[in-house]
Amino acid sequence: QVQVVESGGGLVQAGGSLRLSCAASGSIFSINAMGWYRQAPGRQREVVAVITSGSTTDYADSVKGRFTISRDNAKNTVYLQMNSLKPEDTAVYYCNAKVSTYYGGLGTYWGQGTQVTVSS
Questions:
Q1: Which of 27, 61, 66, 95 is the most buried (most CB within 10 A)?
Q2: Is 85 in contact with 15 (CB distance < 8 Å)?
């Protein structure tokens, strides 16, 4: 079994910063990629940023230059540093991990989400 837990959300004024953290634990042999997604009310979940095991990164156009994704492989943890936040960044942010387990399985695991609210 694999667990994914996010933390670090909250309320911030426009122009401010927040740092999200996500830790994966359990029967993990390796993590192939981790990513952050978000879902605003009435909208579909969208990718924000992803990072591979080799630290290759990719970002949604809407966050390029403002958000930075990083990971600590030793801790099975991924971070999202969010700067210059805008009201349109308001959403529930979800962490995703693509995991190879000790049982030989490969699965995608999601956290429960953390709310980010940016006030104007």
A1: 95
A2: yes
